[in-house]
Amino acid sequence: MGHTLAEKVWRSHVVRQAEGEPDLLYIDLHLVHEVTSPQAFEGLTAAGRTVRRPDLTVATEDHNVPTTPGPVLDLISKTQLEALTANCAKFGIVHHRRGRLGQGIVHVIGPELGLTQPGMTIVCGDSHTSTHGAFGALAFGIGTSEVEHVLATQTLPLKPFKTMAINVTGQLAPGASAKDIILAVINRIGTGGGQGFVLEYRGEAIESLSMEGRMTICNMSIEAGARAGMIAPDETTFAYVQGRPHAPTGADWDTAVEAWRQLRTDDDAVFDEEITIDAATLTPYVTWGTNPGQSVTLDEAVPDPAELGDDDARGNAQRALEYMDLTPGTPMRDITVDAVFLGSCTNGRIEDLRLAASVLRGRHVAPDVRMMVVPGSHAVRLQAEQEGLDVVFTDAGAEWRLAGCSMCLGMNPDQLAPQERCASTSNRNFEGRQGARSRTHLVSPAVAAATAVRGTLSAPTDLDTPTGPGPRHTSDPTHQEVPA
Amino acid sequence: MEKFTTHTGVGVPLRRSNIDTDQIIPAQWLKRVARTGFEEGLFSRWREDPSFVLNQEAYAQGSVLVTGPDFGTGSSREHAVWALQQFGFRVVISSRFGDIFRGNSGKGGLLTAQVAQPDVELILKHLENNPGATITVDLQARTVTADDIVASFTVDDYVAWRLLNGLDDISLTLQHEDDITAYEASRPAYKPVVTAETGAAPRAQIQVSTAPTGD
Q: How far is CA A179 from CA A153, A189, A209, A286, in A?
């Protein structure tokens, strides 16, 4: 019997196997950020250990940085950022600091720098490490004890995962996006449905997606409870990786591609579970509740808890609607927002910004709405500026910020006020996620942009023809397709 | 790591499902670099409500948390485990746990006892009817006992072995350092090593000098 993609990557990284013990897996790349690492470095030092492979470790600042220029004013945050700088200097780890090219959200810079490649094992003290699975890497989030373990040994003891195939057949209709695929998957299998599994997204719709779209999907695997999500590498993947700073070159490139082509799930491999979703039936999804599985399509209304499955689902929905201050039966399009957040490791890449800008060009953000656009990395920011997207955003009345996790997680200065409601392209609508007592609706970049214009949850098709000024930089030569 | 064999303590009924780690400890508490002091952040937003279970006198000494399915989903923050432990919890009982949270708990010595949902329901009712009642958790026998309720629980065998013996993962792995070195010698040459190289901005030549610098 053949093997799945996940099994192949697993098997090629086993350092040691013993009866009754977890496999010891080698880790090809360890991504480090300021929040989940200080206690790991402290533990390492206290035990008199060192970093085994600083050359397979890379650090950046993302969760806790302000996205406006100037010094870090919060002293506790400043101490944490300084701790990372000091730890990286002490152990010889490359560290991409705020304001420098290379800095950005850890899951945006890995692929961007060409560090994320097919067939690798990649870990980070962050649950959205699943993002890197878009390249056919086995990538998953770990806790701080495991961060320390990887720093010390470059390995992790792990029990094998089960595998689940998510077949996404057909093609997305215009107006639907990768974000809608993953929100539909989570809606279908629930926030716990993927526990213990590696998800493998496959099928025509997945193969047609860009790497950015694939990353959006793998990113939210954890919201379905799965530690990792993967997509088989193909020509789209190779074209994305080739030429990046850490990509193999010359004969190494050919050897690598040859190896990567072998990673696809064998035809006779068997998944532990399998589900199928028809992409052609998907329309934009929006969450109404306080976990990413509580969603409906934009065309629907806020559900009535009384009509939901079991006691537990009813209780959860009731509580979520109270928290979200929503009434059953309200059409989703009637929900008014105070803020729109475009960014995060889910949707803060150049393609996401281009899409949102295409909706906002010549239009204006609604008077009572604050829209924040936060590029996922410094490089994304520069690319967007070269394409004139920043001008589209600022002309439309949105804020154009520096790279970071920003309003995704209610930690740095970018937060909602209590009771404020936000349409957000991020990944979690948990209670208080974007600030104490804040309310989040998860949406795609296109829905975020349209919502900003109308002030209520909307799709681009709900908008009137643009009447505002066109882009100032119409002659900008950088309006070109970036090589795939 | 402290050994775990059996534990008897006050059970705290937290009748909610899908408790993500953002609820266990909100992000604002994650700015700290120390490993202690996280008990203050435990369920801090919910504790603003005076009727919240942890604010009730009967549960002040609580050490066994009994809760709904899918406890500890979401963020990988191990601070959630530290917050529970530093508040005084030794065991969490649920029918399903988030994968990363369960892994983090095992590393830090917090026992995640997976009990079938009907049994969790019985224990919750018992605790709600008898505030301050105790629960005994026996890791060797893999049982949870609350008065006349005796339920079995599952936990990963290897994690149980480490907890029973109080063993630290890293020192166990370092016993196999030769295997790691041997593996490293066999890694393909095309695998990336990290350099400070960032290239130009992706696919474009852009001046970075106008960018704001870090403080």
A: 36, 16, 11, 10
Calpha distance A197→B48 (Å, rounded): 36
Beta A23-26 vs A155-158: how paired, if at all?
antiparallel
DSSP character for A267?
T
pLDDT at A466: 79
ipTM: 0.93
Tokens in use for A218?
A: 């793998």
Report which secondary-structure segment, H or E, holds A5: helix A5-11
Residue A1: predicted pLDDT: 86
Cβ atoms within 10 A of the Cβ of B214, count?
17
* A296 and chain B in contact, CB less than 8 A: no
Predicted confidence at residue B201, as pLDDT, reads: 52
Residue B171 sits at φ, ψ, to 5 deg, of -65, -30
Query: pLDDT tens-digit profile of A421-438?
Result: 999 999 999 999 999 999
For testing contact with chain A, the best of B23, B86, B157, B194 (most A CBs within 10 A):
B194
> How many CB atoms are closer than 10 A to CB A91?
18
Token pair 């909307």: residue: A458
Q: Which pair of tokens denotes residue A453? A: 């214009």
Query: In the 3-class helix/strand/coil scheme, how is B173-208 assigned residue by residue?
Result: HHCCHHHHHHHHHCCCCCCCCCCCCCCCCCCCCCCC
Tell me, what's the pLDDT at A467? 65
Cα A248 from Cα A242, distance rounded (Å): 8
Give how far A407 is from chain B: nearest CA, Å: 11
A340 vs A401: CA distance, rounded Å: 13
Q: What is the pTM of this model?
A: 0.94
- In angstroms, the CA A115 to CA A139 distance is 12
Report the distance separating Cα B94 and Cα B73, nearest Å.
Answer: 12
Q: What is the largest CA-CA distance in chain B?
A: 73
**Is pLDDT larger for residue B202 or for residue A80?**
A80
- Coil vs helix vs strand at A168: strand
Query: pLDDT at position A468, please?
Result: 56
**Interchain pair A225, B98: CB under 8 A:** yes
- The pLDDT tens digits of the residues spanning A166-187 come to 999 999 999 999 999 999 999 9
> CB-hemisphere CA count at 13 Å for A156?
29
Residue A287 pLDDT: 98
Quote the pLDDT of residue A476: 38
With tokens 């949707």, the residue in question is A347
User: What is the tens place of the pLDDT at every residue in A280-325?
Assistant: 999 999 999 999 999 999 999 999 999 987 888 899 999 999 999 9
* Backbone torsions φ then ψ of A44, nearest 5 degrees: -60, -45
B79: which chain A residues are within 8 Å (Cβ-Cβ)? 144
Cβ atoms B72, B47 nearer than 8 A: no
CB A340, CB A422: distance < 8 Å: yes
Below-70 pLDDT ranges, chain B: 200-215
Hey, which residues does B20 pair with through a beta bridge? B73
| Residue A310, pLDDT score | 83
Q: Encoding tokens for residue A307?
A: 């009509």
Q: Is A252 within 8 Å of B189 when comparing Cβ atoms?
A: yes
Distance from CA of B139 to the nearest CA of A (A): 18
Extract the tokens encoding B77. 């923050």
Cβ-nearest to B180 among A155, A402, A431: A155
List the Cα angle A440/A442/A448 in 5-degree steps: 100
Round to whole Å and give the CA distance between A123 and A125: 7
Q: φ and ψ at B190, to 5 degrees?
A: -80, -10
Return the closest-CA partner of residue A344 out of A107, A30, A65: A107
SS3 state of residue B172: helix
